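#help-structures

NK: newbie question. if I give both the sequence and a SMILES, will the prediction place the ligand too? trying with NAP
OV: yes, paste both and it writes out the complex. here, I ran yours:
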Amino acid sequence: MKRVALLGATGSIGRQAIEVEANPELELCAVASGSSSLDDVDAPLKQVGGDLTELLDKAEPDVVLNAVVGFAGIHATLWALEHGVDLALANKESLVAAGELALAAQRRGGGRILPVDSEHSALFQCLEGRAPEQVDTLVLTGSGGPFRGKTRDELGDVTPEEALAHPTWRMGPKITIDSATLANKGLELIEAHFLFGVEYERIEVVLQPTSIVHSLVRFRDGAALAHLGCPDMRVPISYALTYPERAATPLAPLDLITLTLEFQAPDLETFPMLALAREAGEKGGTYPCVFNAANEAAVAAFLEGRLRFLDIAEVVADALDRADGAPARDVADLMEVDRAARAIPVA
Ligand SMILES: NC(=O)c1ccc[n+]([C@@H]2O[C@H](COP(=O)([O-])OP(=O)(O)OC[C@H]3O[C@@H](n4cnc5c(N)ncnc54)[C@H](OP(=O)(O)O)[C@@H]3O)[C@@H](O)[C@H]2O)c1
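OV: that's the protein plus ligand as structure tokens.
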């Protein structure tokens, strides 16, 4: 029996995780949300808002499923890594922002990171048991979001409603906007670098519009191993929570006969966030933290109607230009970098 602490229980991942929790091998020992009620969730410990690490101290989980959205998940990520507790990580923003600090916490505490992001779950499975020198490149796939194929001229006046209409995944609003700008693929690029220790020049991004190929690994002998599945987050959530087992899920098998697997290169001129993320990742230090913070602020402003879609990338580029990127010595440093990057006016 694994005791699971589910943080972000009222969100898109959180709700799907509660379905996965029906597995008799899993026991929900604690749940948390930011401000939404948890009255309809059955768990011995519940917390709305407040310090997530206090809840984790009380809950003593075997695995923390961090499904909080944004930088707010950082303390829970570091808590799990420091305490040697398995971290089922949906909250990519915390690994992107904390980067080296998270890896140092992991070295001290020994906590494992089990990726929940479908692409990273796919890479994790394709890489399992392979020596690093066998790996040539990682290939992250993405759907391209609702605006794939559009030009910059066509994106000038898009509304939040249009940007929230994702073609293949049903997700929370922040990640859905990130998918429309390709910032999500940028965050995933940095996440993959920290998760798998592969340098940026060996991580490619390609679009696969139906989201059936969740990512692939190219090996030095010319073979490529891909992970295929329906776009349904219950699969990677279940894999992370039941690892190293592979529990049954209620999903229908993939119908191979009707599949079309088309791949495309991402359009980096129309969607500059992916290139900005790559640059921030390559520069290192706290540049990824700045990328993430400025993006969170810009996405919130876009959703509130205070910023145009194409200006999200302008705000992030501006924040990166202003930052010095000096590495963070500790979490307090990181929080200051995050705060300063958000403070850039977006209205
Ligand atoms: N959705 C997907 O399919 C998907 C796929 C891959 C990765 N992810 C990643 O998973 C994470 C969650 O995404 P989502 O789509 O599930 O987001 P979401 O639907 O917006 O849900 C976010 C959850 O975080 C909680 N939360 C926010 N701030 C909090 C705080 N300070 N303390 C505790 N809880 C807090 C929210 O609580 P309230 O309800 O009270 O606001 C909510 O439960 C993101 O990092 C995202 O990138 C999501």
